[in-house]
Design brief:
2 helices, mainly alpha, single chain
């Protein structure tokens, strides 16, 4: 268990439950490409909630369909 940071000091989240990098769609997979397009549309619209939803759905799809 990591200690709490000192008050006022910035720190990076490295918790595996909160991945830092967005999921990467599998080339040629229609579902992956659809979810990536949804994520891009949300990013363009500055809809952070929808972008997060698309990332969660893409991660779930990758885990279930591609075992990654």
């Amino acid at each position: 268990m990591t200690p709490d940071p000192k008050p006022g000091t910035p720190y990076a989240m490295t918790d595996p439950l909160f991945p830092v990098h967005p999921p990467v769609p599998v080339a040629g997979c229609v579902s992956c490409e659809s979810l990536a397009a949804r994520r891009e549309a949300a990013r363009t619209a500055l809809d952070h909630s929808a972008r997060t939803d698309a990332n969660v759905l893409l991660r779930l799809h990758l885990r279930q369909e591609h075992r990654t």
